[in-house]
What we know:
Layout: H1 3-13, H2 36-41, H3 67-72, E1 78-84, H4 87-98, H5 104-109, H6 112-116, E2 126-129, H7 134-140, H8 144-150, E3 158-159, E4 164-166, H9 178-184, E5 189-191, E6 201-208, H10 213-224, E7 229-237
Parallel strand pairs: 1-7, 2-3, 2-6, 6-7
Antiparallel strand pairs: 4-5
Amino acid sequence: MSNRFLKAILDTIYPPRCTACMTLLRQRDTAIPFCESCAMELQLISSPLCSICGIPFEGVGIDHPCHECIDKKTPFSWHRSWAFYEGPLRTAVIRFKFQKRIEIGRNLAIPLLSCIKQIPDPFPDIVTPIPLHNSRLRQRGYNQAKILVEHLHLNGVKKLYNLISKVIETPDQVGLSGSERMDNLKNAFVVDKKVDLKGKTILIVDDVYTTGTTMRACARVLKKAGAAGVYGISLTMPRP
């Protein structure tokens, strides 16, 4: 049975819909899984931006490291996010993350490919999601970052879903300052000691990149465990 025939059956049983408003789409395989109306409201992130954390700058210019990445000696060398956390994308992420619409993860993984195409050399050896603490995982029922990784197709890249574990249940980061967020996550993450990371480049995946504190904390333990380099991608971030 051909892939084209299987796709036709799938589209008949489960017709492709806009990830935000659920309007029927003309085709399933699209780089932006939103209807034309919702897609026009998306605000994709572009240069000029920080060449390390990917947070955009105002105006025009070239990419360069931001003061925060320089001051904090950011342990990952590169991160990019697809679009701002607003409008239809925010609606889709909230449904995916908080309303148990797990099936939306397949669509939301598609735009991450545009970030992956920008990854510098060397290309990652391993891809892993930002972890949840077991208590949060039981409460939500799933790790949304893990679902995004499950739907990524990366030739030659090993998927390790439990490479990083969150061993300390931390208070919600909302409303905390940068330094408070760092203190909040101190010693919260550990790396699976059975995995040899020496000389490996790791790609961390998350749904929302807010201040970067969580990704920095994960990158830090990966580097300490022997990783040669750490990259990050996320679906969305708030406007700076």
